[in-house]
Amino acid sequence: MAYGLSTSRSLFLSFALLFSLWLLVFWQGIHTAVEIWLISDIFNHCLFVLPGAFYLIYLKRKELDFSALQPAYFAYLCCLGWLLVYAFGLAGDVKLFMHIATFSFLPCLIWAVLGHRESKKILFPLLFMLFCIPIGEELVPMLQEITADLSVMMLKWTSIPIYRSGLYIEIPQGRFLVAEACSGISFFIASIVIGSLYSYLNMQSGLRRVAFMSISALVPIVANAVRVFGIIVIGYLSNMEHAVGADHLIYGWFFFLFVIICLLGIGELFREKIPAKAVDTSAADTSGVAANQIKAVHAPTLALTLVMMLAAFGWFQLISQAKVPLDTPTSINRQVLVEQFKYSEDADQVWQPSFKQASDREFGHIMLNDTSFSIFIAWYPLGKGELITSLNRLYNQRSWTLESSTELTHSDAQGATMQMLVSPSDARLLTHWYVIDEKIFFDERVAKLYEIYRIMLGNHRGSGLIALSVPITADNKEEERVYYGKLIANNIEGLSLSLK
Questions:
Q1: CB atoms within 10 A of CB 214
Q2: What pTM does this model have?
Q3: Domain boundaries of the chain, sorted by first residue
Q4: For residue range 322-335, what is the model confidence (pLDDT) as tens digits?
Q5: d(CA 109, CA 66)
Q6: Which H or E element spans position 170?
């Protein structure tokens, strides 16, 4: 469909206005997402997703009939839903909710303006925008386990003697840890993005596209296990002179490049050998009529969108202002710890918890029934950082690995978990809980929802975390787990007074 210059300019300005409104309303969500894209290697590819989606829409421009636009009012309901999700995330500093709402709202808005018929023609580019959401780190523990399982299975096919303890794989020459960096999460997510894009551009059959995208998810998992297997074999054959340190990373990236080339080769085998049908662009020039129709449709659509987004912008500003702290406490009550638990500070943070932007924190030792426990406390008053976020860590994952997790059954700690952490030379038990406005929670999801609820009511004061850790011996793990679990359960209420 051909259009006159004034019509093209009108369309461009209309969509530029919509995009500008999206940037304005969701600025905090976009800003925090871009920070993650730049900082995390896992999500570097997100920087290219939105420009790529718009380019794919541009390639479809000749198939779009802008003279037949009919707003999709159901999509406006979806837009309102995402605005609610964003408000929920903004109130509780839930970045995940903010990011999902931000990058789901944009394709829904385009769908609402273009209508069902035209949006269907650019369905993949609209869905492709969802790859902007920095999500997937939750899969790291699962991928670590799968990688360890597959690599150990392959090592058993060789004559290399091995011993596995959790995520540690030992050979006579040394010990390997299937750490977060070895989970292959970067390869996994990037492979799915590349695979989906390749299938869209090179395949017409829906079945072929689904099959190739499934292969794109499976190949990096298997390939990463092969990579870990290869690194261990090289370490065994070279007496640990190679495949460690910088070699480890170099092998990883070269191997990933090789895997992507292989994946594209598989795609060539899947791809249909017949050319796609050509798009009929021989329609007559109806720019004069089209311009009138576009104006008739776009005026109420743009007006509705403008009102909705400006109202949302005002609402989000009110939520942000409500989070400004007034007279909330800004410190931990150390007197409770000193008088009741003989608290003493400790500069040597053995298990190294990391809670960013905490207004106040304590790390030291307390006495529970003549047993010394390491204690870590972090306090976040209203408007000062975010307590429950994936960026905060209970232990240094480069030094420690989670071996097991059990639930405490004591009446005073129903729902609390005790984690067993292991390192090359030590083992520890770790228990933590949250105190939200003087109320104790063991489930972080419930704690987060309650925190959001208090913020939206305007009654939130602050949120804190208390974590206890104690070393254990290898011979009496189960007995010590039961004894220390009961000891901790009996003192949860007393320790929580330091945050009340």
A1: 12
A2: 0.72
A3: 5-135+284-322, 137-270, 334-499
A4: 665 545 555 788 88
A5: 16
A6: strand 168-171
